[in-house]
Design goal:
Distance between the termini: 17 Å
Strand content: under 5%
Radius of gyration: 18 Å
Order of helices and strands: HHHH
Number of strands: 0
Number of helices: 4
C-alpha cells in the first residue's frame, strides 16, 4: 500500500540510462557534424572574462531565487504554492538562460564559428526531450 513498486528503481535507472544515452549520442553526432572538439567532462569553460562574470551573476541570482521562492512558498498553504517559485522551474529557467548566454558569447567571441550552433542545438534537443518525457509521463516507465 505504501512505498514504491518493486520494479520502480529498475524502471527509473532504465529511464535515466536511456536519457543519458540520447544526450551523449546527440552531443557526439553534433560535434562530429559541426567539427567541434570535445571539452573536458565536468568543467565549465567560459569563453572570456565577460562571460564568466555574466554566468556567475546568473548563478547567484538563481540561488537567491530558489531560497526566496522557498521562503515565500513555505509561508503559504501548500495548495496555494506559486508554481513559478518551485525549484524545478527556477532551475529549468537557469539552464535555458545560462546556455543562451553561452551561445551568444560563443557567437561573438569563440574561436570555432560553429560552437554556438552546437550550444543552440543542445538547448533545443534538451527542451524537446524533457517536454516529451513530461507529456508522455516518462514513457510510462516511472
Amino acid at each position: 500500500m505504501y512505498g514504491v513498486e518493486p520494479t520502480f528503481w529498475l524502471r527509473l535507472i532504465s529511464l535515466l540510462a536511456f536519457v543519458l544515452l540520447l544526450l551523449v549520442s546527440f552531443n557526439t553526432i553534433m560535434r562530429k557534424w559541426l567539427k567541434i572538439e570535445r571539452k573536458k567532462f565536468f568543467s565549465y569553460n567560459h569563453v572570456n572574462e565577460k562571460h564568466k562574470k555574466i554566468d556567475w551573476t546568473i548563478r547567484i541570482t538563481t540561488i537567491v531565487s530558489i531560497l526566496s521562492g522557498y521562503v515565500i512558498n513555505i509561508m503559504r498553504d501548500p495548495i496555494n504554492w506559486l508554481w513559478f517559485l518551485q525549484p524545478w522551474f527556477i532551475i529549468f529557467i537557469f539552464i535555458v538562460v545560462s546556455e543562451t548566454v553561452r551561445a551568444v558569447m560563443e557567437r561573438k567571441y569563440a574561436e570555432n564559428p560553429n560552437a554556438y550552433k552546437l550550444t543552440i542545438s543542445q538547448i533545443i534537443f534538451v527542451l524537446i526531450l524533457f517536454f516529451t518525457l513530461f507529456k508522455t509521463d516518462f514513457f510510462g516507465l516511472v
